[in-house]
Design a protein that fits this description.
The protein has a 5-stranded parallel beta sheet with strand order 3-2-1-4-5. The protein has a 5-stranded parallel beta sheet with strand order 7-6-8-9-10, with helices on both faces. The longest helix is centred in the first third of the chain and has 17 residues. The chain is α/β, with parallel strands linked by helices. Helix 1 links the parallel strand 1 and strand 2. It is built from 13 helices and 10 strands. Helix 1 packs parallel to helix 5, helix 1 packs across helix 11 and helix 10 crosses helix 11. The protein has 2 domains: 150 residues, Rossmann fold, CATH 3.40.50; 168 residues, Glycogen Phosphorylase B (Rossmann fold, 3-Layer(aba) Sandwich).
Length: 343
């Protein structure tokens, strides 16, 4: 390993990366490259896959040099880094070493396993930074917001300051903007609706989205449903209830032609007057694209997973009597839509 104080090799450990996670973590990734422009940065998703190795790879090109995904996520085996106590009996990653390791999680087993990797410096929030080479002040309180958690780790590691961004800018291919303009031409007020999420407990009932869409049609607006591959079966039900609804990703196979690229949805977001979404990857895409966003939360907490939107309204199920998404009334979302559009 190098004797230079600036690390030449860096390992960042996360459990996994879905679309929403990857966008929330992007300010940290950019800040890490800014702080260490010459380092070889390895991103380790120890417990599952990472979209940084797939559909989000173009976004982190030049920022991350190598992405390692949990082997077990692809083979069905219980193999990975930070999964089994048996990993403590050997050095992970085939004995590779890194001058700096940043552990972004607070899970004891994963941290102890990572600590077995040869390193010169180790930063981890586990156990109030008990194993860390660098530590925050004694009165430090670990923040709830994911972006701030990661940026704090970067500040602790580097001694530099990294402000929390109020929005996330991603430069899109001009061709995507042209494609989005063709799919949603100027004229109507388009209301984006994303009824899907990473799991059904995070989804506001589909019939509520349909009722909300009908109200938009009555107000001479056009509901635009953004359906990913896992939600395409909902299209017929929605179309039967709302013939005026648009499905740009399904029209002429547009989504499949672009491998359902997040950047395409971001481009479509620029055509929307407003968007309504569950706590989901699509919600974060709406925010990144610049759409005014109404974000619906149930079991998950906005204090940690809040999208980086320049105009954000959060509606929580807990404010209506429970943690489940069905507690959010359609009327509350309708009122929020009118308030945002009137602002």
């Amino acid at each position: 390993m190098s004797n230079d104080a600036t690390p030449k090799t860096i390992l960042v450990y996360v459990g996994l990366d879905r679309i929403g996670d990857s966008l929330l973590k992007l300010p940290f990734v950019r800040g890490l490259r800014q702080a260490f422009p010459e380092a070889h940065i390895t991103w380790l998703a120890g417990k599952d896959t990472s979209v940084y190795a797939g559909i989000m790879a173009p976004v982190v090109a030049g920022l991350i040099d190598e992405v390692i995904e949990c082997p077990g996520a692809l083979t069905g085996e219980a193999a990975g880094v930070g999964i089994s106590p048996k990993e403590l009996l050997k050095r992970p990653l085939g004995g590779r070493g890194f001058e700096l390791i940043i552990d972004t999680q607070k899970v004891a087993l994963a941290t102890l396993i990572l600590f077995r990797i040869r390193h010169r410096a180790f930063v981890s929030p586990f156990g109030n930074f008990i194993l860390s080479s660098k530590k925050p002040p004694k009165d430090y309180i670990f923040p709830k917001l994911m972006q701030r958690q990661l940026l704090d780790l970067l500040e602790i590691t580097t001694g530099q300051t990294f402000p929390t961004p109020d929005k996330l800018d991603i430069e899109l291919d001009p061709g995507l903007h042209e494609t989005a303009a063709a799919a949603l031409p100027s004229g109507p007020d388009y209301i984006g609706l994303s009824p899907g999420a990473g799991g059904l407990p995070k989804c506001w009932p589909l019939e509520n989205f349909i009722e909300l869409a009908k109200e938009q049609v009555e107000k001479s607006r056009v509901p635009v449903f953004i359906l990913g591959p896992q939600e395409e079966d909902w299209q017929n039900e929605i179309k039967a209830a709302i013939p005026e609804a648009l499905f740009p990703l399904q029209e002429d196979g547009l989504g499949k032609a672009h491998d359902f690229s997040p950047q395409l949805t971001m481009a479509l977001s620029t055509r929307l007057a407003l968007a309504v979404s569950n706590d989901s990857g699509t919600g974060h895409m709406f925010a990144t694209g610049g759409a005014k966003l109404i974000s619906l939360f149930g079991r998950t907490v906005p204090e940690k997973f809040m999208p980086m939107a320049h105009n954000l309204t959060i509606i929580r199920a807990q404010d209506f009597g429970g943690r489940e998404m069905h507690f959010i009334p359609v009327g509350a979302v309708s009122q929020a839509v009118e308030a945002v559009l009137a602002d």
